Amino acid sequence: MTPPPARRRRTTARGGTPAHNLPRRGTVRRAQAITTYGVGSLIAVDQESFIVSGLDEADQSWNSDESPRISERRLARLLGVDHFRLPPASDDTSRDGLRVRRFPSMHSCPECLELQRHGDFNPPAGRSVCGTCEVDLVPSRFVVACEAGHLGEFPYWQWVHRSPERGSTTVGTCGGMLKLRSSGRTSSLRSILVSCTCEQAPEVSMEGSFRRSALGDLGLKCRGTRPWLGTSAPAQECGLPLRTLQRGSSSVWQPVLKSALSIPPWSNSRADPLDGHWEKLRKYENRDAVAIYLDAVFDEEWPASLDEVMTLLAAEREEDPDGEATPTFDHRYRALRNKEYERLRSGNDESEHSRDEQFVCESPLGDQSVLDPLGVIGPMLVKKLREVRALKAFTRLVDAESTTDAEEMPLSERPLRWLPAMEVRGEGVFLRLDEKRLGAWEKTTAVAARTERIRAAHQRVLEQRADDPSRVVPSPATPRMVLLHTLAHVLIDEWSLEAGYPAAALRERLYAADDMAGLLVYTATSDSAGSLGGLVAQGEPELLDRTVRSAVHRAEWCSSDPLCMETEASGAGGTNLAACHACVMLPETSCEHNNILLDRALLVGTPDDPHLGFFTNILDQ
Prior knowledge:
14 helices, alpha+beta, globular
């Protein structure tokens, strides 16, 4: 069979034309353009390093013809935009793609050891090699960032020429050239040596450059540079402390992702019929006023019937948080989750809707009473679902979920009426825990004390990551949250073994609050693994009963026991207890909380206190 022709590389540097004549040297899936290589992130292609460009329309960073438009009104309203767009897909017919700019610009030559900006090496067009030595240039391993989201080049010149007597002088005034070499003695920063040919300063190592105050001691503050926006966005005065980071560190770019399930009445598989008119329509209370507005705006046929418009307006008002004159983002996001929980509980019958319905949730046909001994109630078969995950912004150094007012960096210089997003279509199983039994369990002294250890450790981590402790949000760790979270993990592990799903193809969605105690396990990929019906079949009461029992029995023992079960703390910062990669941890793509806030002892108890576990009563059966 003749192999297909090689696909072209569409990623281009800012200021150039699409690289149609260059061979394709790397691929980025659409989902990765939201979760891993979004706007402002660093991406490595062969031996080169780039930063993904912003979304400014003037720069045409994304070609709208190659970025299909998608709608999810509930999420769009929450994020203050009109719609979403999929990242541009690159193929043999596309004219453009995901644009990038070269960053960092500081490079070194492993042959002549010179350390300078990429353009000063005089590389041939389209190549990243030293014009003199003709060897591949190496991008700087180090960058600097601040908690406001700005990113810049590491100040090598100031690092070499630092002196308590002279202080920090103007860059380049010595007339020398920087050199970078490795002594090869160790793999630590001590072996990376930087010098200047001016001989006014001794050769120094990079050791100590990662200290919090290392750059501040040189009198350096953030200048507000935003290289992903290019020259169209001048630097902003910032003044925050700078931190040195490895170019590939996860702290360099952390996405702020928000997601929503498409639920009725917004899940009928069509574009928003009244896009751009909702704010005005919400002012009208009665049908006559709405009809008058529609007549005035649409000369011909209305895009939706009056009954449908009134239903959509009612759904919008229902998601307004009660008692909040100006609801915060967190209140509105919680209201969005509450509506999903209500819809998953009530469900909707597939026979009552058209084939275009994107949310089908039904009660199983089997006898649900078999689940009563487990404390599991209300299983629902989610035969069709659609999830939209939007990239709202990004942060550097800090996790946006850990502070009340995180410094989120927008994706463009100018406000946009859309955001990048991806959509997942699949299926799932929803279940709840018996509130009466759960309430009695979570009030026991042993359960509260064990959960408090997790909460205190997590709160301590959040405070350590934030410079301002007053802005830290409370840890979400509660007995029911940790229980539901751990139960979701063991169910995903069980279904990956029994139903043939890879664990990375399944994802959890937790509903843990004073008035919610449920979890949804659903397919998290859009390929064939997401819609074949295998996961839905596991939600039938008889199968679910067997699955929960097997998962709980499996969680009773870990290959790392007794160390795993008896440890005082585990995980990053001690934010887990009895949880490790040999028992309940999952691939990061499957977990809503980055594999923290887990404790299988809350499922099965401990050897010293077997009644601690919520499911202890079934272990002897």
